[in-house]
Amino acid sequence: ILNVEQSPQSLHVQEGDSTNFTCSFPSSNFYALHWYRWETAKSPEALFVMTLNGDEKKKGRISATLNTKEGYSYLYIKGSQPEDSATYLCAPFLGGAGSYQLTFGKGTKLSVIP
Amino acid sequence: DTGVSQNPRHKITKRGQNVTFRCDPISEHNRLYWYRQTLGQGPEFLTYFQNEAQLEKSRLLSDRFSAERPKGSFSTLEIQRTEQGDSAMYLCASSQLAGGNTDTQYFGPGTRLTVL
Question: How many percent of chain A have pLDDT more than 90?
C-alpha cells in the first residue's frame, strides 16, 4: 500500500489570508506529482504536474513546490478568495514503468470565509 | 463543451441489482481511467484502458465489476449484484498519449451511486 498523506485535513481561513498545505509521499519510485482542485458538484480540475526535484509551478495566486528526495510537495494560495474553497488533492505517480494510475491523498478541504 | 462526461450523475439502487455507468472521454484521448471515491477517502484507481485494451486493473475491481471500452471511445462500468459497500462516487478520466506519467488526466463530474 502506497501511503500519500495530506495535511491538514481541513482548514478555514479568512478572505485575504494566505495559506499552504502539505502532501507527503514515498520518495522511491517517484515519477511525477499531480495537484487537483475539486469543487463540490464539479469535476476535479488539474492544477499542476511536477516532476523534478526543486520544481516550482505557479498559476495565478496558487503555487506549488516539490522535493522528491524527502518526498513532499507544498501548495500555497496567496490572498485566499471565497472561490478558492475546494478540496485540494495531490496524486503522485508511484506505480513504476507501464503503470499510469494516480495514487491520491485524502485531500485538504479549504473553506475561505468572506 | 468538450470535457469528460459521465452518465448518470446520480444512481440509487437496491442491494442486489445491477448498475451500469457510462463515460465519454475527450474525443482525441486514447487513455481512459476509472476511479472510485468513498466517503473520507481520496479517489482510488480501478482500471485503465489504452484505446480498447484494458491494460491495468486494481485489486479493488472484484469479479462483480466489469469495464469495457469496445471501440476505444466511450466506456462502461458495470457492477453486478450491488452491495452497500459499493456506494461511492465513480470518476472517469481521460488523457492523451504523450509524456506518459506526466500526462494530465482530465476528470468527469462523476456518478454518485447509493446502494440501499
Answer: 77
